[in-house]
Queue: 2 jobs
Job 1
Amino acid sequence: MEAGNKIGSSAHPTSLPPPVRGGVSSGTLGRHLARRLVEIGVKDVFSVPGDFNLTLLDHLIAEPELNLIGCCNELNAGYAADGYARAKGVGACVVTFTVGGLSVLNAIAGAYSENLPVICIVGGPNSNDYGTNRILHHTIGLPDFSQELRCFQTITCAQAVVNNLDDAHELIDTAISTALKESKPVYISISCNLPGIPHPTFSREPVPFFLAPKVSNQLGLEAAVEATADFLNKAVKPVLVGGPKLRVAKAQDAFVELANASGYPFAIMPSGKGLVPEHHPHFIGTYWGAVSTSFCGEIVESADAYVFVGPIFNDYSSVGYSLLIKKEKAVIVQPNRVTIGNGPSFGWVFMADFLSALAKKLNRNSTAVENYKRIFIPPGMPLKHGDNEPLRVNVLFKHIKEMLSGDSAVIAETGDSWFNCQKLRLPKNCGYEFQMQYGSIGWSVGATLGYAQAAKDKRVIACIGDGSFQVTAQDVSTMIRCGQRSIIFLINNGGYTIEVEIHDGPYNVIKNWNYSGLVDAIHNGEGKCWTAQVSNLA
């Protein structure tokens, strides 16, 4: 081990360098990491301090373009980084060794499932403790520092354990660039004694990343477009269906280009809501099998050809694998592959390239749009509601719908809010996020914090059930401390309503809280906050 790496050496991180002041951190690992985060678009980092990461936090604070936001727990810090990445394209969180790392694990797994680049940074053991057979605190009592790393290996696309300054620059940059290229989370562990030590590799500003664009195999692209155009141009009433992988493929604009050129109606899978313009005249709703938007399912399932762009067919999105679609009628477009019917399949053909090229080859066909217009009946209004009657969910969501604009964004919590928020017709530029693949209850509180911090031009409207809120409620305090202006509609069902529908039992009933009283207590007269309990329209 180099002598320089022994600064602050101890069996535990108690003898650490003094806090960073002003610009003292130039030429250090901490300075490099802070500048790299700013360079890739991270302006806010969500953290929970612990003795293994305190010096690193000092260096992040010393970066004038970086804002450190302390969260109430690591799980919410991870959820906030998830929400931030949805709005900004990349997010970051910082926690401490093992107790913090294992606590944030669930949030990072959710980000992996949703293809979100989240940089998860952990303050690790002193570099001089590696290989000593010492037992450290915050571990399970074994002289093995790899437990946390092994847990992260299956839910991140790259892992870096930085315990030597000689390769620290390479490890950090490789991990961060991999997150951006793969659109998945990464794990970076940094020994607690290293952030403030100068090293020649950090002597200058980070050179900006150049992430080489992925270019389609031109011959494969041409063959895929030709075969798909031939397939679709023979169809009588083809349709388009967008899926959640439109985001990771950065193909939303190309999807709209194809819809405009083809004249086909288009729907969205439930997990892709918010990724296509719902104000478009050819948008027909959410395709979700038996629970699709009215008249949408009929048009999709009666089509003689359908193009699914970026789909994920899991048990949720397929309503228990009950979709009435046939493989031989489908063109499946994934981020880097196109499959037509039962074959052929074309690899290394990227979604945006393919959709844009296909738009130029299709004959315009609006038959399915005309069929939709022929059967469509506008949704009715909720039944007249007396002022003193208990507030119904359909009435509540009628009012929420009227609040939406291009300056707002909806966060829908796992559970019955999934279904109610799916019915909202989003105006132009209105954001929409939910976590359908992973479905971790409580996600929305942290995600609302992160999304609102990243998208300060939007008013975030979160719809959260009482059961989910009880999991992660504490970070409403962080929203208040950050001066956010989000609106939370807490729907008090007295338990886990979605699970009641699946299988009822006494375990689905939870203790009722005075939710407005709880938030008033969190507010404690500091910052701006308003709460109310509403049970009727009076």
Job 2
Amino acid sequence: MGLTKQYLRYAASAVFGVIGSQKANIAYVTLRGGERGRYVAVAACEHVFIWDVRKGEKVLILQGQKHEVTFLCPSPDGVHIAVGYEDGAVRLFSLLSGESNVAFNGHKSAVSAMTYDALGARLVTGSRDTDVIVWDIINESGLYRLRGHKDVVTQVLLLKDRNLLVSSSKDSFVKWWDLDTQHCFKTMVGHRSEVWGMVLLNQENRLLTGSADSELRAWDINYLQEEKAAGEPKVKKGKTLLDDDDDEDNEEGADDSLEERILRCEKAGSLLREARDRVVSLAADAKARVIACHGNDSVLELFTVLEEEEVQRRMTKKQKKAQKKAARTPGDAGEEAKRTLTDEILRLTNVKASAKIRWADVLLCASGELKVALLLQNNTVETYALKMSDRAPAPNKTARLTLGGHRTDVRTLAFSSDNLAVLSASGDTVKVWNRSTLQVIRTMACEYALCSLFVPGDRQVILGTKSGKLQIFELASGSLLETVDAHDGSLWSLCLAPDQRGIVTGSADKKVKFWEFELIKDQASAQKRLTVKHTRTLQLEEDVLCVKFSPDHRLLAVSLLDSTVKVFYTDTLKFFLSLYGHKLPVLCLDISHDSSLIATGSADRNVKIWGLDFGDCHRSMFAHDDSVMFLQFVPKTHLFFTAGKDKKIKQWDADKFEHIQTLEGHHREVWCFTISPSGDHIVSSSHDKSLRLWERTREPIILEEEREMEREAEFEESMAAGDVPVVPGETPGEAAPASKKTVETVKAAERIMEALELYKEEARKMEEYKYACMAAVNQLPLPKPSPILAALGNVSPSRYVLDVIKKVRSSELEVSLLVLPFQYAPPLLRLFNDYIQQGLEVELVCRCLFFLLKIHFGQISSNQMLLSVIDELRTNTVSKVQEIRDVMGFNSAALQFLQREIENKEEVMFFADATGQLAQKKKRRRKRERAILTIA
């Protein structure tokens, strides 16, 4: 079947105009050994931008896929950054290359908190699905899932010296988890409302929590095992596997309860914040010397945690004062000066930002300078510095990133006639961007803009504002030429006349006005400048929402608040047609290049296509799941795009009434878009503060295939939504497996099954061949191998199965094996035995083997056929693993020996250098002495 009509695909090209998204936090990062505090990482919709705050430019983009970024956590070594997403995925990016090689899928909804351990070997993530998951970064797999919270997890902290984890949640509880036994041993219930943040202070002996009131509560932590060890020293003997359990029983008997055995928490007091509302974020620097805290306002409160010596000095002074006071009042007995929380944690200063703060991060440099990075709610990043050594440190603003985006939502966009410049205007500024480099060329202050256009010649732009004014800007100088009081109500729509000599404006004051361009002499500069002259007015009964000229200049279409579109003759302003049928007002409309069709988009979520000859409705289409906000025809075609509040942009064919493609990418309502005069580019703007550029590719779209792909995507989503198979005999407890069933895990399981089927088929062929050879007189040719094996260079079927298992992502391996039906387990176990005997991928094979034994224990242990296989596996596995351990031990010892050798050599060389220097010194001294003697 030939292609009757070819459509070309539009693809996402770039995201710009967003400096930092509100959903995720801001974090200081270091790049390639650069200075600390120079680079910050912020989320930008689905990407992560790394900004150089000194230069104010983007230095690295970590590319996301589809879902918004919700949390960032740099690794302790500063080489990687963990990024959590809206769908619960976590990806690790390298800050050197900007690429991601590791991905974890375990959470069902957005990641809300993350932390690394001190070595950077484990990552703990908390989520909106109330689970906490611990991931092994080195093995790239999930260790376990901890369940217990009843609401969003707001913060997770790992202790440096002990294998303990603290998590806080909106359910008002702080939970302590023992990671050795994977269970919650203590729940702190001292909060009346949600716990929004927490930090560990004083070498992890104090916990500071922030909740929905103005108090920051402090809790003293006493680790009881330590005290016991200090009180009664006992020789620790090396534990063996046999006496391990008895020891634990004895310990449990010794202490009354489990939580009392590990630690005790007592409230130590509280710090009062100046803000009255909830804590939005609570942060501390790496050494926990400075605490930063803020609410829903623009003030960041900074506290400093004093060293123990400093606290003691202050307490001595306080004691002396109390004694003097007691001495002055004879009747008063000398009171002991009590140590309070305010003696240990002092208010440092307040940082006043230019707008409401969303997230904060602090960094204490070695020089004693404190750097503060703030992500504000109006798409701005600000950084401050203050000297900690000063008596009253004053914050000094060091950078403000505002140029690359608008403070408020962009409400109108326009393309220049040469396709090169893009105009975007928001509630306070109008910016002109270079389309190819996506850099800002001009930024000018304006009133709240609702509509805009480039004046022919692209040297001036005109904006229509919410207050009913027309503002004319000159691009060369970036100055406002004139503000014209055009209407008494909001100026909703502007349209350039087809003869390019004037414009028409429509407003909420129920008037449509016609204007002509004019050049007048400017009194100040004595040069000519552009202005507009009012020529005609069309008075209507309802507010005007949108106006459009037909390209042949014959008709003018006006959309009104009564849900109709009225069409008038342009020359006489006589009424021609009324297009009625929409249930809610028409928010946007456009007329095709040949003036034959008019398309209207309405708040009732429908798009209607009408003929302009008789006003007949050709087709009504349900276009979006929310109001249709914008509609425009692609130049010189009958294809048009619509944008909706449902975050989507869709392309339609007005002749065949077909939906062609959907452009998905925006994470909030799409307000408007503009198509370049060539039709090759689209720029769209959204409530997520981002502007997106879409480019027309040369790839054709075949509609049947497009629909098929959509159906497949829906099916895959529903397949992944199913529950993970339950492991027999396991009851749901606090700890559970970390991974979750996804499309990838199901596909991986299918690939393993296909490989095993192929292996079985090849084994059957070889059996048949052997029997045939025994029966035949002459030597028979070998059976042909499977085309798949031949394509991979004639690998053996068993190696092919191993290769397939190796290609499964480490983080998805367990769930893929869990999805595998039991009938595939026996052949796998036999193959594992072969692999271990040959010494192939012993570590990976052992991991798969132990997991299969765990989940199919009942069926395997009751199967007589597998008895011999399991027995062989037992002996082979133990001996092979022992062998590998020996090799690793030998290599480790050899490396240590080499290190010692090198050190010894260096020391010898060092001493040789020293003796050489000594000899030279002696020579110089002798020379000097000779010189003195000769002079004498």
